[in-house]
UniProtKB/TrEMBL annotation:
Transmembrane segments: none annotated. SMART domains: HTH_ARAC. The keyword S-adenosyl-L-methionine does not apply. This is AraC-like DNA-binding protein.
Length: 276
């Protein structure tokens, strides 16, 4: 009698109740999970089962159960199963601004390689990676983020001195972009709002927040799209409401940011309803 192959579960992504500045997921994928993409947050997580493989900074990375993954903002990466059995993981996406509240204008920590067994980072991420059904209290999250920011700085050797650049101007730019995220914002506006020339401001923003002002604005629009899609909006309506020129414009940016088309992203999120 021929051996029957085991039935693999469908791909799924479970989302925790969102709290401003941080997103938590737990997911299962087999085969190819995500195409190459980049987002403007840290992606910090732990592999729970299987082999989690991805390309990152021109190399192949493999995360095993118990490893900690730390991907820097705006660094391209993909995702796939390293074996036929698939992989399961938990991940948090943290806005660099939350770490800057702890770092106070120091350069953002950068972990070379993206995967680590450093016990300091394993301990610091533990409180932020519970099952998605667990709701983090505000103070609990704040304490855990402060511990993680300091652990990242220590593990990566981030200098204790403030980085070169105008941190206050970068923070004013971020606040302005956040307040006007549903419309086109010009460089002239940012210069007027911050008192900083566009080239210096662009450098400052990337130093302190890990991405460019334009990418930051685009990601806030994509956050709005995801929220609207999960609440039943049509793609065209969500695109328009979030300030994109049209649906195709939004879809191109969505795929580059998340490694999935809006339709596939929504299908994996929709699988949660069948699992919970």
């Amino acid at each position: 009698m021929p051996t029957r192959k085991p039935v693999l579960p469908s791909d799924w992504v479970k989302h925790a109740q969102p709290i401003e500045g941080i997103e938590r997921i737990e997911a299962w994928f087999h085969g190819n999970a995500y195409a190459m993409h980049r987002h403007d947050t840290y992606a910090i997580g732990r592999t729970l089962a299987g082999v989690q493989s991805f390309r990152y900074r021109h190399g192949q990375r493999n995360s095993l159960p118990g490893n900690t993954i730390v991907l820097h903002p705006d660094e391209p990466h993909d995702g796939r199963a390293g074996t036929e059995e698939g992989f399961q993981y938990r991940m948090i996406y943290v806005e660099p601004a939350l770490f800057q509240e702890v770092l106070g204008g120091r350069a953002l920590p950068f972990l070379e390689g993206g995967v680590t067994t450093d016990p300091r980072l394993a301990a610091a991420t533990h409180a932020l990676l519970p099952p998605v059904g667990y709701t983090l209290e505000s103070l609990e999250q704040s304490d855990a983020l402060a511990e993680l920011a300091n652990a990242l700085a220590a593990a990566t050797g981030t200098p204790a001195r403030t980085a070169k650049g105008d941190f206050l101007a970068a923070r004013r730019a971020r606040d302005y972009l956040h307040a006007h995220r549903a419309r086109v914002v010009t460089l002239d506006e940012l210069e007027a709002a911050t008192g900083r020339d566009r080239w210096s401001l662009s450098h400052d923003f990337r130093t302190f927040y890990g991405t460019s002002p334009y990418r930051y604005l685009t990601m806030r629009r994509l956050d709005a799209v995801r929220h609207l899609l999960l609440h039943g909006a049509a793609l065209a309506d969500a695109s328009a409401a979030a300030g994109f020129a049209d649906q195709s414009h939004m879809t191109r940016h969505f795929s580059r940011a998340f490694g999935l088309t809006p339709g596939r992203w929504l299908r994996t999120a929709g699988a949660v309803a069948r699992l919970t």
